């Protein structure tokens, strides 16, 4: 299926807007929103885009209305140009999956493009060194769409191979115990010395100073962890990164140290 381009009068862009600050959006994301007649999204994702929205029909939605949002975007994209926006990358815990599923079920044929964006994992990692230098996994602790027992199996699977794990949606008022459960699973496989980064509002308004701790001491910062936080639990080879003996972040060596002298 073709992507929307300068010659198409209709079509759909599913746009990852990154962390929420325009300087961290891709040029293609800005172009797609600028060319759209309609821009649809959750209000929290639309607010930072205000400079791009003049003269457009803006349709605001709320959390939990993803299916309705997808249906509306597809309906409008049959005769106009639509950008449906999603924080981070639209294909990573974002809107791309549900929009493409609804489009598939609708039988409509419209030009569509998924525009990538900076994820919470990328944004958070950039603030604490290089914790994700090699293989890593991302797990969401939200059990709204995925049963908790399935999440626990996935946690065991990724921790058992010793790689860094990025935890999305770690802790909310409705499920305050899921992160503590994830820590229990990590401790089955990782020593207490494994470094952990706690990053709140990474590269967005309200960003807090990242906290570097260890798996053995994570309870000391538990109250600071919420739905706006990304937690990076290092792998078996991860270590604290220091400069002049000050803790700066986390490094997960990729293996160069086994091959080169430096």
What's a concise summary of this model?
The protein has 262 residues and is α/β, with parallel strands linked by helices. The chain has helices spanning 27-35, 43-46, 66-77, 96-106, 120-126, 148-159, 178-189, and strands at residues 11-16, 38-42, 57-61, 81-86, 112-115, 129-130, 137-140, 165-168, 195-200, 211-214, 229-233, 239-243, 246-251. A hairpin with a 2-residue loop joins strand 12 (239-243) and strand 13 (246-251).
Keywords:
262 residues, alpha/beta, Cobalt-precorrin-4 Transmethylase, domain 1, Methyltransferase, Cobalt-precorrin-4 Transmethylase, Domain 2, 2 domains, five-stranded parallel β-sheet, five-stranded mixed β-sheet, 13 strands, 26% helix, elongated
Please provide a written account of the structure:
The chain has 262 residues and is of the alpha/beta class. It folds into two domains: 11-118, Tetrapyrrole methylase, N-terminal domain (Cobalt-precorrin-4 Transmethylase, domain 1); 121-257, 2-Layer Sandwich (Methyltransferase, Cobalt-precorrin-4 Transmethylase, Domain 2). The protein is built from seven helices and 13 strands. It has helices spanning 27-35, 43-46, 66-77, 96-106, 120-126, 148-159, 178-189, and strands at residues 11-16, 38-42, 57-61, 81-86, 112-115, 129-130, 137-140, 165-168, 195-200, 211-214, 229-233, 239-243, 246-251. It has a five-stranded parallel β-sheet with strand order 3-2-4-1-5, with helices on both faces. α6 (148-159) links the parallel β7 and β8. α3 crosses α4 and α6 runs parallel beside α7. The longest helix is centred in the N-terminal third of the chain and has 12 residues, at 66-77. The radius of gyration is 20 Å and the shape is elongated. It starts with 10 loop residues before the first strand and ends in an 11-residue tail after the last strand. The model has no long low-confidence stretch (mean pLDDT 93).
């Amino acid at each position: 299926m073709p992507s929307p381009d300068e010659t198409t009068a209709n079509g759909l862009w599913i746009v990852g807007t990154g962390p929420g600050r325009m300087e961290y959006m891709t040029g293609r994301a800005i172009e797609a929103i600028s060319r759209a007649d309609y821009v649809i999204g959750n209000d929290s994702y639309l607010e930072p885009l205000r400079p791009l929205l003049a003269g457009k029909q803006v349709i605001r939605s709320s959390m939990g209305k993803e299916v309705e949002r997808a249906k509306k975007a597809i309906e409008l994209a049959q005769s106009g140009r639509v950008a449906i926006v999603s924080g981070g990358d639209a294909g990573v815990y974002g809107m791309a999956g549900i929009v493409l599923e609804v489009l598939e079920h609708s039988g409509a044929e419209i030009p569509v493009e998924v525009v990538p964006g900076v994820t919470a994992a990328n944004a958070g990692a950039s603030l604490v060194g290089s914790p994700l230098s090699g293989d890593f996994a991302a797990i969401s602790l939200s059990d709204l769409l995925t049963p908790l027992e399935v999440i626990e199996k996935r946690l065991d699977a990724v921790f058992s191979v010793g790689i860094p794990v990025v935890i999305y949606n770690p802790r909310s008022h409705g499920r305050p115990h899921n992160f503590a459960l994830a820590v229990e699973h990590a401790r089955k496989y990782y020593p207490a010395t494994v470094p952990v980064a706690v990053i709140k509002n990474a590269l967005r308004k309200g960003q807090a100073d990242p906290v570097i701790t260890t798996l053995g001491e994570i309870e000391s910062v538990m109250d600071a962890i919420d739905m706006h936080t990304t937690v990076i639990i290092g792998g078996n080879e991860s270590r604290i990164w220091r400069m002049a003996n000050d803790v700066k972040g986390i490094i997960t060596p990729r293996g160069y140290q086994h091959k080169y002298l430096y």
